Amino acid sequence: MASLINVINVQGEREPFSLKKVYRSVLRSGGSKELAHKISNEIEAIIYPDISTKEIFKNIKSKLKKESIETAIRFSLKEGMRKLGPTGFLFEKYIGDLFREHGYTVKTNKWLKGKCIDYETDVLLEKNNTILIGECKYRNHSGERIDVGVCLKVYASFIDIKNGNGFKKEIKPLVITNTKFTTKAIKYAECQGIELLGWNYPIDNGLERLIESKNLYPITVLPSFNQSFVEYFSNHEIMTVKDILLIDIAKLSKKAKIPASQLEKLKKEAEALCH
Question: Is the CB of residue 176 less than 8 Å from the CB of residue 136?
Fold first, then answer.
């Protein structure tokens, strides 16, 4: 049985293959129960000892593309987030757009005065009577984790800012990442009151949930997206799939020197995902 077979995860460790994970991943991506069963059975049939989870992911994605392009795109969200690199600049811009969509006032790269020194913050988020001082930690390699050292540094900066800045509203530190947190990082953050937002954290209300709830997928999830588009699109505030829906193909093709056929593919994929 495939359930007794070990696979190699992104950390290079062996772990038992889980057919339930495959089934749930398809459901989470918007697939029907029938589709989840079908994909699970097809994956179970090709599993072999020590196959990588990366290879399993590729197979699921390939099979989903044939069945439902919108489900395949949603399934690729985590991979798409890693394509916002290679640096964290685009991730910070994207996070700003995401929080604006959720009703926050957003300021990026703002300097805040501390008691000892000044600090440049990635994102300053304000809503109601609370200000979140956000530190963005982007990772473009599968399996990377945000460890406790990041939280220690963020908390130290936060205390200095709190002691040296005359905020009249409640302020809180926040760490945002496109990956997961280590157990120690979570434990320390809970102890010190640091807000964390990452992949599947908080549980059932992580970064992916904020994205899915507003259909605010990054453009990098679209199958026809080419990394050579990144710089132009980001400079012209085309960061999300919703932005693609608003483009004038003829004008953008001429301006950006991107073939109209490629832009048409992107727009069709965006329409499939959003509608």
Answer: yes
Q: pLDDT digits over 92-110, tens only? A: 989 999 999 999 999 999 9
CA distance 258 to 228: 10
What fold does the segment set 89-213 form as a domain? Trna Endonuclease; Chain: A, domain 1 (3.40.1350)
Q: Which two tokens stand for residue 158?
A: 């936060």
- What's the CATH architecture for 217-274? Orthogonal Bundle (1.10)
Q: Which of the 8 DSSP states describes residue 30?
A: T
d(CA 117, CA 248): 47
pTM for the full model? 0.88
Q: Do domains 89-213 and 217-274 have the same CATH topology?
A: no
What is the C-alpha to C-alpha distance for residues 275 and 215, in angstroms, rounded to an integer?
10
Sorted by sequence, the CB contacts under 8 Å of residue 42 that are 6+ apart come out as 63
Residue-wise pLDDT for 153-169, tens only, equals 999 999 999 998 778 89
| Structure token digits, residue 225 | 């997206």
Residue spans per domain, the chain: 2-75, 89-213, 217-274
